[in-house]
Amino acid sequence: MPILIPILQGLRLFDRLPPEKLAELAPTLNERRVERREVVIKRGEVDGGLGFLIEGRLQTVNFTLDGREVGIDFINDGDFFGELSVIDGQPAPEYIIAGAPARSVFLDRPRARELMFNSPQAAEAVATRLAERMRRAASHRAMLALPSSFQRVCAQLALLAQKMGNGTMVIVMPPTHQEIAIMVNTSRETVTRTLQYLQGLKVLARDGNHLVVHAPDTLQQAADGKVGPTKS
Q: What's phi and psi for 194, nearest 5 deg?
């Protein structure tokens, strides 16, 4: 059964296309549902196509030579993924796994390339996505260079925070403690202690499925090493 047009219109890249083009593409899309920790795209896979996350959360990860999992980035609902292999035809450079039960649709590589390179609006969306990835990668490298695990956790939380329409900083559907731990090269216990400390200072507070950052300046100071458990 084809994916409904209103659903496609809520997905990045597809939101740039007219309804008649979406109606043409809808029957060609393959839907896939996965459970938490299930692999969506394997590193080394070539023909994964271009994925679009309808709901849930995905995480890009890799593994060190000793088998340790290293988190790279998050993919939130509405976004697309797998574009690198679609563009250059090379194997996928990383694993994409489900951080929560997720629903995705996939467009095969030939159609994805046609969409990317024949539509100026789609090409702009892909270029913007790649620029965002590069900026986040640069921020992630800088974060990993911080001297303490506490600082790295705080820096990662600051990177995840988004400004909402009312000006409030919010971490939407925050990652689990373990997911944050693999992003910042520390233990889950350290992440838990850091979050408890920040909540005790009223820097963060849970609101349903979100974390509200009540004091973004203090969170940044913690990432900079100016605030912390050992500071007076």
A: -65, -45
Cα–Cα dist 128/114, whole Å: 18
Of residues 94, 87, 9, 108, the one with CA closest to residue 43: 94
Q: What would the pLDDT profile of 62-102 be if each residue is shown by its tens digit?
A: 886 676 777 788 898 899 999 999 999 999 999 999 988 99
Q: Measured between alpha carbons, how far is 24 from 187 in angstroms, rounded to an integer?
A: 48
Greatest extent of the chain over all pairs of C-alpha atoms, in Å: 63
The one-letter amino acid code at 200 reads: G
pTM (two decimals): 0.80
**Span 32-68, pLDDT tens digits:** 999 998 999 999 998 889 999 999 989 998 886 676 7
Give the integer Cα–Cα distance in Å for 53 and 40.
Answer: 11
Sheet holding 39-41, edge to edge: 39-41, 95-98, 57-63, 69-76
